[in-house]
């Protein structure tokens, strides 16, 4: 999936590295170590149209872009995006296709 942020094409990738990057920005942090779990939190948050979750997911999924957009650039992009509900749906749909995400999403439904 490609988004145009600040006139630059930003490719979003939703594999294992995405999950690792998402844990860095949204994982459960105990103060002494990060327990992860960001994906488990992000899936229902995206379904509830939480803009912080969407920003975190886009940031984490853009790990391969050079230069990687800053979190503030992504926030500004979302603030000005006219069809944000469709963007939530598109990002969620694309994310749920990835092998690294499918099982976690399936287990959340159970």
How would you sum up this structure in a few lines?
The protein is mainly alpha-helical and 110 residues long. It is 60% helix and 7% strand. It has one domain.
Question: Could you describe the 3D structure shown?
Answer:
- This protein is mainly α and 110 residues long.
- The chain has one domain.
- 60% of the residues lie in helices and 7% in strands.
- The chain contains six helices and two strands; from the N terminus they run ββαααααα.
- Strands 1-2 form a two-stranded antiparallel sheet.
- Helix 1 (16-26) packs across helix 2 (38-47), helix 2 (38-47) packs across helix 3 (51-61) and helix 3 crosses helix 4.
- The mean pLDDT is 88.
- This is Phage protein.
- Pfam families: Phage_TAC_12 (PF12363).
- InterPro entries: Phage_TAC_12.
- It comes from Ligilactobacillus murinus.
Keywords:
110 residues; mainly alpha; two-stranded antiparallel sheet; 6 helices
Please give the count of helices. 6
Largest sheet, in brief, is: 2 strands, antiparallel
Indicate the mean pLDDT: 88
What oligomeric state do the depicted chains represent?
Answer: single chain
Q: SS-based structural class?
A: mainly alpha
Could you list the spans in which at least 5 consecutive residues all have pLDDT below 50?
A: none
**Number of DSSP strand runs:** 2
Radius of gyration: 13 Å
Tell me what portion of residues adopts beta-strand conformation.
5-15%
Number of domain units: 1
Q: In percent, how helical is the residue content? A: 55-70%
Globally, the shape reads globular
